[in-house]
Amino acid sequence: MQYISQHTKKWFLRLLAQLGVVHNDSQSISTIPLFERIKVAMAAFSTIFLVTTISTQVQEPSAILVLLGSMGASAVIIFALPSSPLAKPWSFVAGHTIAAVLGISMTMVISDFALLASLTIAIILMLMYIFECMHPPAAATALVPVIASRNIDVSYDLLIPVMLNVAIFLIVSLILNRWVLRRKLSVLPEKFDPVHLHNDQSPLKRLGLQQEDLMQAINSFDTVLAVSEQDLEQIYQQAQRHAYQRRSGEILSRDIMSQDLITINQDASLGQAWKLLHKHKISMLPVVNEQQELLGVISSVDFLKNLVVPSYSGLLKHLSGMLVKRKHKKEVNNRVQDVMVRDVIAVKDTDHIVALVPLLSDIGLHHIPVLDDKQKLCGIITQSDLIGALYSVNQKAS
Fold this sequence. Notes:
The protein is mainly α and 398 residues long. It has 17 helices and 5 strands. The protein has helices at residues 2-19, 34-58, 61-80, 89-107, 113-131, 137-148, 159-180, 203-206, 211-219, 229-248, 253-256, 270-279, 300-304, 312-323, 329-332, 357-360, 383-397, and strands at residues 284-288, 294-299, 347-348, 367-371, 377-382. Helix 2 (34-58) packs antiparallel against helix 3 (61-80), helix 3 packs parallel to helix 7 (159-180) and helix 4 runs antiparallel to helix 7.
């Protein structure tokens, strides 16, 4: 009896997984933050509202009622599934356009309604494969003239309301995705290190999965995947970080950071900042206020980046004169806030050390300020600190 109960439970769970009720092997949509879900819903609302409002002014209400069905389905894909190839502007525009032209053309050559509808869908699917513009809602657009042909004479004039809806939807969705939902623009992946300006890949990618590996894996499937190569790479890297974090234990930023900090005020002179860098043999000073809040950083590079000199010897002479000679008194008295970097990448003291690896390798940082729960500076982590921590973890693992 117990065996039958366990067997039934196992069968029931398998049924739920097959139906998509449980998500043991796929993304759980409920994990998406509530605020993000609200933004997506409001973006869809705004787009459909504008499409309806503007279209009402230039076309008949009957045409709008038919066409808005496919636009509503497009809103779900473009705003809720932005990483999918189905949501790309080309898929949206080409899919709807080709579907509308095909649907109108098919009504002119086939009279049987069942054959007309089924053949239209079959052909539009093949055309989407050929032109790489798979967009499911476009199938509804293809059926618009098919359904309309039962009551009215269909002509290519029907393309006007279709293209109007597509144009309005495209413009509004691009604006909302970029400026409201803050989705990044798609860029072609390049084998180029933007930090050091050479053609070697970034350190984390040299021994990991290559772009060719990911593309070969994606193209080996016989179905359309709702994920891009860039997203797949991010998923892989995130999974690696979770796996390493599980193996290495809870080593946090506060465990490896330097806490005896040399800082400077933004109103201090550049000469004072240079003396501190030289005295303590460091290359970066955090700039803080009286509340120990991080305002920026100043490094030895900041003293040199704005100098225009013809040669290396000229650079040394200029720097020496700027800090020592009386005639450069004005430059010496310039304040730290005049040259400090304000846009600073910092981490929390509760961040795992895995989060530091891409910052100190791929991005090319040498020092990372650490902030506590009150957003006040509490430490600095260098590349040496991270190397020591990773070595310690590997020693324990071995």
